[in-house]
Write a structure and sequence with these properties.
598 residues, elongated, single chain, mainly alpha, disordered N terminus
Length: 598
């Protein structure tokens, strides 16, 4: 496989992968919002925003979304959003070189903007129509629409939009090779776009300025501008813009006779245009490849590319492309020594050039015709004034009738003006009602969201209260069990104290028994005190103020104290021969005691 082809395929893979980063995050976010949308208006806005995001890199996907927004806008009779949907549809078909469909949608959008008196919307459509007619080769109509767009933008102070229109007017002058005038408009556009930090707009100006320098034969400067534009397009992942830059760099390298480099860039441009379905761009790249192959003497490849481009140009009926391909085909056949076919296409070239010249002269002819009509009208006015002087007597006789006519005209004008003012007033009132309805609809949507939010909060807090209630009930149960257990625990040492005290008070004990029982009373008193301390400790634990203190403990004495405590109770109950047995793992207990001892 050719190394150049491998490089191109690798490049396409990289470009395809780039769309999964920042733009994908934006699209995913919009899709999530779209799934959450619960109103027609917000759904339409999200669909149009998605289409705008996809239009330059994935026009077919954009078309699916914008058709849905168009249908929904018609369903709810929303002129404002329908106009936006139609404008986007026009942009998509314009990018696909289907100029007839694009123009139909632009006209439909324009009608909707006129209904709502949206001046900015009208200015944008006029700008798009100017670009459409420029691509169709009708430069007179193109300039007319650009000027209309500029007038409306100046009227509402849309400087950012004026920057776009200046750029487009510069393109018209660039096509007609008025390079200095073109640079003037491009620089004006660039200055405005810098004011608004419009990076994509600035990159577009760089591309056009670079193209102008190609026309002025300053190819090195041109390439520097294209590379600046590529950096911006890459940051925005704008595949369409990158394709334009690669094509322009290819042209500049062709002029510098760097054949291989020119072919590489043109091939990259062609693959991007093919991916986007830009047939005019594909045909243009093929024509430039044919030109490059002709210059390098590879006439068969030149013929192949030019014929393929001509096929596309014939389908689209783009005269400029046809003309360029006739020239390349004629040169290729001449290089292949097929002079009959070379002559045939050369004749087609001359005929096509004549047609182009006629199209470019239409504007001049229209200007001459307008000037003639103006001068002819002035001559007629002068003749009428002369006739009026000769017939002054007849005019005096008709003066009364004229005054009467003027009166009728004045009254008629007054009625017309009154009706017109009433109509304007009604239109304003209707617009006010429409705006109020929109505001009410928006408020209702916000109230619905707020109500749903409150319901969620109530459900959550109710669930929290149920859990808290269950915890409180469980806490009460634990406290009741604790108090019942404490009463038993307190009673045990208290019984020992009372029992042994009674035995001592009877005076029938020996001295040794008396001392032993006194010791039992003392130990149980201490146990009772410890138990009360434990109750206080539990209260501290609940309040979070308890601190555990670890001390060394004699296990033997502790066991003996427990045994003596229970012994007092057994004596009172007259029970004997009772053994104190601890149920535990003897080996484990000894290991733990031994470990603690060590």
């Amino acid at each position: 496989m050719n190394l150049r082809v491998i490089f191109i395929l690798f490049f396409i893979l990289i470009i395809s992968g780039q769309a999964t980063t920042a733009q994908k995050v934006v699209r995913d976010s919009l899709l999530i919002e779209l799934n959450k949308s619960n109103s027609d208006t917000s759904t339409i806005d999200l669909l149009n925003e998605l289409s705008t995001n996809l239009i330059r890199s994935y026009p077919d996907s954009a078309l699916v979304f914008v058709k849905k927004s168009e249908a929904l806008s018609k369903k709810i009779n929303d002129s404002k959003r329908l106009a936006e949907s139609c404008k986007l549809l026009g942009n998509i078909f314009y990018g696909k070189d289907d100029f007839d469909k694009a123009e139909n949608f632009y006209q439909e959008a324009l009608n909707e903007y006129i209904k709502t008196n949206n001046i900015l919307g009208k200015a944008k459509i006029y700008n798009n129509l100017g670009a459409l007619y420029r691509n169709k080769g009708n430069y007179t109509e193109s300039l007319k629409y650009y000027q209309l767009s500029l007038e409306f933008r100046e009227q509402i102070g849309d400087r950012q939009g004026m920057g776009k229109t200046y750029n487009n007017i510069g393109n018209l002058h660039l096509i007609q090779k008025n390079f200095n005038i073109a640079l003037k408009y491009f620089n004006k556009s660039q200055q405005i776009r810098k004011e608004y930090n419009d990076s994509l707009g600035i990159s577009g100006c760089y591309v056009n300025i670079g193209a102008t320098y190609i026309g002025k034969n300053n190819y090195t400067v041109a390439i520097s501008y294209f590379k600046k534009a590529i950096e911006i397009y890459q940051s925005f992942e704008d595949i369409f813009g990158m394709g334009e830059c690669y094509k322009s760099i290819g042209i500049a390298n062709l002029k510098l006779e760097k054949i291989d480099l020119a072919l590489d860039y043109l091939a990259m441009s062609y693959e991007i245009e093919k991916k986007l379905g830009d047939r005019i761009g594909m045909a243009s790249s093929l024509t430039l490849m044919a030109n490059t192959y002709n210059k390098s003497g590879e006439y068969k490849l030149a013929l192949q590319k030019a014929l393929k481009s001509l096929e596309i140009a014939n389908k689209l009926e783009v005269l400029q492309l046809k003309t360029e391909n006739y020239e390349q085909i004629s040169l290729a056949y001449e290089g292949l020594a097929n002079y009959n076919k070379s002559l045939y296409y050369h004749k087609l070239l001359l005929k096509s050039k004549d047609s182009l010249i006629n199209i470019e002269k239409i504007g001049e002819l229209e200007a001459i015709e307008a000037k003639y009509q103006s001068e002819n009208k002035q001559l007629q006015i002068e003749k009428l004034e002369s006739d009026n002087k000769l017939n002054s007597l007849n005019m005096q006789r008709m003066q009364i009738k004229q005054y009467f006519s003027y009166g009728i005209i004045a009254i008629s004008l007054l009625i017309i003006i009154t009706l017109f003012l009433l109509r304007i007033k009604l239109q304003r009132k209707n617009r006010t009602i429409f705006d109020q309805n929109e505001e009410i609809r928006t408020q209702n949507e916000e109230l619905e969201k707020h109500r749903n939010h409150l319901e969620d909060l109530v459900e959550k807090r109710t669930a929290d209260l149920v859990v808290a209630k269950e915890k409180a009930e469980k806490s009460d149960q634990l406290k009741s069990a604790f108090l019942a257990n404490m009463s038993h625990e307190i009673r045990t040492p208290l019984n020992a104290i009372v029992g042994f005290s009674n035995l001592i008070s009877e005076g029938e004990l020996t001295k040794e028994e008396n001392l032993e029982y006194s010791k039992f009373v003392e130990n149980n008193s201490n146990a009772l005190i410890n138990l009360i301390d434990d109750i206080i400790d539990i209260a501290k634990i609940e309040s979070g103020n308890f601190a555990i203190s670890k001390v060394q403990t004699d296990v033997f004495l502790l066991t003996k104290e427990i045994f003596n405590s229970y012994k007092s109770h057994l004596l009172m109950e007259h029970k004997e021969n009772i053994e104190f047995i601890l149920n535990t793992d003897k080996t484990y207990l000894l290991r733990r005691i031994f470990f603690c001892y060590i």
